[in-house]
Amino acid sequence: MKTWSMIQQDTSFWKRLSAAPQCAFLFDYDGTLAPFVSTPSKAFPYAEFPPLLLQLMQQPRFHVSFITGRASHELLRLLRLPVQPEIWGSHGAERLLPSGEVTPFYDRVQYFPAFDAAVRLAGEAGFVLNVERKPACVAFHLRSLPEEERRDAEQWALAHWGRLAEQMELELHGFDGGLELRVPGISKGRAVETVRRELSEQCEILYFGDDLTDEDAFEALGRQGLSFLIRPRFRETQAQYWLRPPRELAGLLERILES
């Protein structure tokens, strides 16, 4: 696992980037570009990142996409960029293009009753404030709960949402801070694979993420790109590099823009 200090001295890394005719930057959001906060709707990016992201987007050689568990329009509001980027929302279940067009990759009508049932069950159990409804999933947030309550809430969600997942053909996934009931077959890895197919074979793809949900993207990218775990503390991962947010990630982007 290579850290920021090692990357800075790695001449082969910088030669690889400079030799690529095109580079694609794929960013997770929460925990990567923005800190975790108690109110998700107020999770604005670290101050370093908006100007750096805008500079990347203005370079003809660079492609920038965001791949997030949030709804695409919600992330657009938080980013506050003067130009509209490409956003893969709900773990790749919907794609917001720079033109403003949104393409869903799931049947909304088919799964909405199941999501309604998940929200209703959580509300009846007293967890209404822990549930977040998204376009292609429902999140059960545990991070704000005291440790003992968190364990009980997680067990409740595993039992009740797990049963609902089996009945309604959904998938129950863990993330860093909770659980998600999700449309089957949707993942950040699938979004990465789509982006990679659409770009030239010579394009160098860089993926930045912090969460367990980003492991699908790290796996999909493999050694055909450059994958970065963005976390204050290291954990086991399929990523090739580890950077601490925000300073080390900002340092990497600054050096890329300067080269």
TrEMBL record:
It comes from the Bacteria. The keyword Hydrolase applies. It is an enzyme of class 3 (hydrolase). Pathway: Glycan biosynthesis; trehalose biosynthesis. Its EC number is 3.1.3.12. InterPro entries: HAD-like_sf, HAD-SF_hydro_IIB, HAD_sf, OTSB-like, Trehalose_PPase. It catalyses: alpha,alpha-trehalose 6-phosphate + H2O = alpha,alpha-trehalose + phosphate. Its cofactor is Mg(2+). Keywords: Hydrolase, Magnesium, Metal-binding. Pfam families: Trehalose_PPase. GO terms for molecular function: metal ion binding; trehalose-phosphatase activity. The keyword Metal-binding applies. One of its GO terms (biological process) is trehalose biosynthetic process. Gene3D superfamilies: HAD superfamily/HAD-like. Removes the phosphate from trehalose 6-phosphate to produce free trehalose. Belongs to the trehalose phosphatase family. NCBIfam families: HAD-SF-IIB, T6PP. This is Trehalose 6-phosphate phosphatase. It comes from Desulfobaculum bizertense DSM 18034. The lineage of its organism: Bacteria, Pseudomonadati, Thermodesulfobacteriota, Desulfovibrionia, Desulfovibrionales.
